[in-house]
Amino acid sequence: MTINTYREVDLVEYIKILRRRKTFILKTTMVVAILGVAVMLLRPSSLRYEAKGIIKIGAISDELLMTQAEVATEFSTEQTAYEILSELRASEQPISERQLRNFIGNLKLAKSEDDSLLANYQYTAFQSVDKMEAKKTVEVVQKAILARHKEQHQLKIKHRDEIITQKEKELAVIASRLAEMDKKINELFTLRYPASYAEAQGRGLAEYVVIRASLDSAVRALDIEIQAKKRDQENDSMSRVISPPRIPDPLIEASTLAQSVIISIFLGILCGVIGAFIKEWWQKNSVLLRP
């Protein structure tokens, strides 16, 4: 005859077991949670390196770069990304569309109020050397931005030179006409009978006044362009890297950390509950299991 040494355990007894073993469950949860977070921190793929570099753009407030939205998209184009990636990559393999999209998505450009431009590149690490890659990327980005800006700025100054040359020609023509009018006016007013030439003198004076006003206006316009060119050249000389990127420290994504903590706590509670039942069962049945 077989004697049943096991007895049924109802739900109330399960709850009592959990209450008795709550300290064990809490300790198990804490240990598993800490281990889970530690494992997450030791995984390179969970880290992110964020390199930042600040560039001073002398004419960023001018028509070249007007708004922050334009700044954010000015250099985050496929063409610019392709040029930068081509410089970064040592291999000659073609750059894929995915690499271009990832690069554009990781590169953040923002304009500040003091005509500075912050280049921020986020690099998700898979190896410890990726922090150097992030730093190098920002350096190349800074150089590309400055080169692009200076190229556009030089085109603007060249256009300004063309305007100045044209206005200097106009000024020379007006000055020549004014010299001719001076000669005519002198001839009219040095005649022996000036009264008989009063009408001619009046027309000559009126034309002289008009040409003189045109000359003054042309001189002012030329001076405005010359001053604008000088200001553009000064702004262009201000464009430089004022804060090169440093080797970034590893950063942890808040979402990744939160997800890891939640999963670790859940697994800790589960392990604690299972362990509590196993421990309770062992204490009650260890004597019966002995030979």
UniProtKB/TrEMBL annotation:
Enumerate the subcellular locations listed in this protein's record, separating them with semicolons. Answer: Cell membrane
**Annotated source species:** Candidatus Jacksonbacteria bacterium RIFCSPLOWO2_02_FULL_44_20
The UniProt record lists the Polysaccharide chain length determinant N-terminal domain at 8-87
Instruction: Tell me where it mainly resides.
Output: membrane
The record's section on InterPro entries has: LPS_length_determ_N
- For this entry, the protein name equals Polysaccharide chain length determinant N-terminal domain-containing protein
Looking at the UniProt record for this protein, which Gene Ontology cellular component terms does it annotate, in alphabetical order? plasma membrane
- What are the alphabetically sorted keywords of the record? Cell membrane, Membrane, Transmembrane, Transmembrane helix
- Membrane topology designation: Multi-pass membrane protein
